[in-house]
């Protein structure tokens, strides 16, 4: 994955902090029976899963807010304070968090830092040379993989606070049943579109796990990471692809702008092919509390509905 030079100064500061400013051991989070454990998630998607599994037994916050792109996120001094003050950190892994991944890995020397990707066998990941680990990090778009992550997070939360075990296990069972129902809903929705017309064209390639699970083909202008550069050649190739395959719609994302997609639409029009701008899809971050996708279950459902509506 391309690593923006702008991250370097933040990385130097953060590494110094991780090495010297944070001397909490992994067992210290349970030293006080009266203390509510402070959990920091890197993304809203991770935070949402933790809240569903942990319930009211923990204190949660997310480093990146709704609509924030984790690929190019630049950690601030305020972020370093949040990292230091948390008892435990949960992150996605597979370099979704870009340069912050190095910071988080180094912090494991002194603090409990947990990667969602550790829940999954590497054989399940989609290979991708754009990222340092060689895998596509957007695995939450496969509902069954996300269910495995939920089970892993439940185990980690019980380890943090064994007194919450019964509640956590009950929450896990409820949430995993909701994931099963969500998968059934998506399968039902996509029957409206023949496999030959299941194309999803977006700004960046976040939906490959969704595509693999539900028999879609995915194309994007920027590849898996928004840190990549976009050129005129990419736009021309996308125009040719849409025109040749008579694809009806392309989709902006909540973490990127739509200007490049509009250039594609204009290019198709010059070739006599009409392409509509579909409704915004939620990709690497949830929407805000008042949006149609304030949580993971809503995000997957609304994305599917918007894709189906545009392709019909």
Write a structural description:
With 312 residues, this protein is of the alpha/beta class. The chain folds into two domains: 5-185, Rossmann fold; 191-311, Rossmann fold. Helix content is 43%, strand content 9%. The strands form three sheets. A four-stranded parallel β-sheet has the order 2-1-3-4, sandwiched between helices. Strands 5-6 form a two-stranded parallel sheet. The longest helix has 26 residues, at 165-190. The radius of gyration is 20 Å and the shape is globular. The chain starts with 7 loop residues before the first helix and ends with a helix. 44% of the residues are buried.
Topology of helices and strands:
Blueprint: H1 8-20, E1 38-41, H2 44-54, E2 59-62, H3 77-85, E3 88-91, H4 100-107, E4 112-115, H5 143-160, H6 165-190, E5 199-202, H7 208-214, E6 217-220, H8 232-245, E7 249-250, H9 259-270, E8 276-277, H10 296-311
Parallel strand pairs: 1-2, 1-3, 3-4, 5-6, 7-8
Helix pairs in contact: 1-4, 2-5, 5-6, 6-10, 8-9
Q: How much helicity do the residues have? A: 40-55%
Give the CATH class of the largest domain: Alpha Beta
CATH topology of the largest domain: Rossmann fold
Taking Cα atoms only, what radius of gyration do you get, to the nearest Å? 20 Å
Number of domains: 2
The count of β-strands is 8
- Overall, the morphology is globular
CATH architecture term of the largest domain: 3-Layer(aba) Sandwich
Largest sheet: 4 strands, parallel
Find the structural class using helix and strand composition: alpha/beta
Q: Which regions are unreliable across 5 or more consecutive residues at pLDDT < 50?
A: 1-28
In terms of DSSP E residues, the strand content is 5-15%
Measured between the Cα atoms of the first and last residue, the distance is 35 Å
How confident is the prediction overall: mean pLDDT? Answer: 87
Counting H and I runs of at least 4 residues, what is the number of helices? 10
Strand order of the largest sheet: 2-1-3-4
């Amino acid at each position: 994955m391309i690593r923006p030079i702008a991250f370097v100064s933040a990385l130097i500061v953060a590494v110094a902090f991780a090495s010297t400013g944070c001397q909490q051991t992994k067992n210290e989070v349970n030293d006080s029976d009266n203390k509510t454990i402070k959990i920091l998630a890197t993304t809203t998607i991770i935070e949402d899963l933790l809240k569903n599994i942990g319930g009211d037994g923990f204190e949660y916050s997310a480093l990146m807010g709704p609509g924030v792109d984790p690929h190019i996120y630049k950690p601030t001094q305020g972020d370093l304070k949040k990292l230091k003050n948390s008892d435990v950190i949960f992150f996605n892994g597979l370099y979704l968090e870009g340069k912050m991944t190095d910071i988080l890995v180094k912090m494991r020397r002194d603090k409990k830092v947990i990667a969602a990707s550790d829940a999954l066998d590497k054989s399940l990941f989609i290979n991708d040379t754009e990222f340092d680990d060689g895998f596509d990090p957007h695995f939450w778009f496969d509902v069954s993989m996300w269910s495995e992550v939920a089970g892993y997070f439940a185990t980690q939360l019980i380890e943090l606070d064994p007194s919450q075990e019964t509640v956590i296990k009950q929450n896990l069972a409820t949430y995993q049943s909701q994931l099963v129902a969500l998968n059934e809903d998506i399968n039902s929705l996509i029957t409206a579109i023949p496999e030959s017309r299941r194309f999803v064209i977006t700004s960046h390639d976040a939906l490959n796990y969704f595509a693999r699970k539900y028999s879609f083909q995915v194309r994007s202008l920027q590849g898996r990471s928004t840190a990549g550069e976009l050129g005129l050649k990419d736009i021309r190739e996308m125009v040719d692809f849409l025109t040749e395959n008579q694809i009806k719609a392309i989709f902006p994302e909540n973490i990127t702008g739509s200007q490049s997609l509009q250039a594609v639409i204009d290019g198709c029009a010059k070739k006599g092919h009409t392409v509509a701008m579909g409704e915004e899809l939620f990709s690497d971050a949830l929407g805000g509390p008042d949006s149609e996708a304030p949580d993971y279950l809503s995000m997957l459902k609304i994305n599917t509905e918007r894709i189906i509506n545009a392709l019909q």
